[in-house]
Specification:
It is a single chain. The chain has one domain (about 5-210). The longest helix has about 35 residues, at about 105-140. The chain has 12 helices and 2 strands, in the order αααααββααααααα. Strands 1-2 form a two-stranded antiparallel sheet. Helices cover about 75% and strands about 0% of the residues.
């Protein structure tokens, strides 16, 4: 199963990137320069993940060469290399080869899988989610018959949901005595994440179509509630006070769309509170 996670991640990443490129060309050819510019703008936040990849590369003691920098500028750094200082470096293809050689049982494979999942989740939240919102709005409010924006939105939704599932899969493997979840469990998680994200995105898009900029007020209230709630939980992922507040604010924005567990231990109560507030 561990070998299947990076393989499917790579496939969805390629499909999502191809559909995004087709959407950009689609807007350019049709002269819709406004949507073309906004679609290009959705690529910019993704450079934060690319920059983090380069910083992790330097932290491992490897000076990034020109070819690696070019790949990151083209936002292909995740295909080439991701890593964190304590776990070393890895590549998607390295994960696949290591999983094939060891049957997915080696600790090195788990570390490499974690590198991929963490960085991919960051990229998905920063880049895929804004692109999904934009293309969904185009399909619902601007061009109901837009096939290419619709395909791009659908693949972005699936890719974002899989990024969340693969991260959950990795955190499950980190728990002592836990084995790799069966394929049926992973499929159910994917359906749950896809349905949850899809309904929230659709609700926001429809609200924006009817009430225009009032959607930002609704999302802002939800963001504040989630940020204060995260602060009340006293999460210890970030130690510095300023960074801790920034982390809670950023995660509060993510909680507008989905729940990510950031504390060890049972999370049933926290999930129940999240859905009670978000429903």
């Amino acid at each position: 199963m561990r070998g299947a996670v990076p393989r499917l991640s790579l496939t969805l990443l390629a499909a999502e990137s191809g559909a995004r490129l087709c959407a950009i060309i689609h807007y350019l050819v049709r002269g819709q320069l406004g949507w073309f510019g906004l679609t290009i703008a959705c690529l910019v936040p993704g450079y934060a993940a690319q920059l983090l990849s380069i910083l992790w590369f330097r932290a491992d003691g490897h000076a990034p060469g020109c070819w690696l920098l070019v790949l990151h500028l083209l936002q292909l750094g995740l295909w080439k290399r991701v890593g964190i200082p304590s776990l070393g470096s890895c590549r998607y293809w390295d994960v696949l080869r290591a999983a094939a050689k060891t049957g997915g049982a080696a600790g090195e494979v788990l570390a490499q899988l974690g590198d991929v999942c963490v960085l991919r989740l960051l990229e998905a939240l920063l880049q895929t989610l804004p692109h999904l919102l934009l293309q969904a709005y185009v399909v619902v409010a601007v061009d109901p018959a837009g096939f290419i924006p619709g395909v791009s939105a659908g693949l972005s939704l699936l890719s974002l949901a899989w990024a969340l599932v693969s991260y959950s899969h990795f955190t499950c493997l980190l728990k002592p005595g836990h084995l790799s979840p069966p394929a049926a469990v992973v499929l159910c998680l994917l359906l749950w994440r896809t349905g949850m994200l899809g309904t929230r995105v659709l609700a926001l898009v429809l609200f924006a179509r009817l009430y225009s900029f009032w959607v930002f007020a609704v999302a802002g209230v939800h963001w504040l509630l989630m940020s204060f709630w995260l602060g009340a939980q006293q999460t210890d992922i970030v130690a510095q006070p300023c960074c801790w507040r920034l982390f809670n604010c950023l995660l509060g924005a993510v909680y507008i769309f989905c729940y990510i567990n950031v504390r060890p231990g049972p999370s049933k109560t926290r999930v129940a509170v999240f859905y009670a507030v978000s429903t």
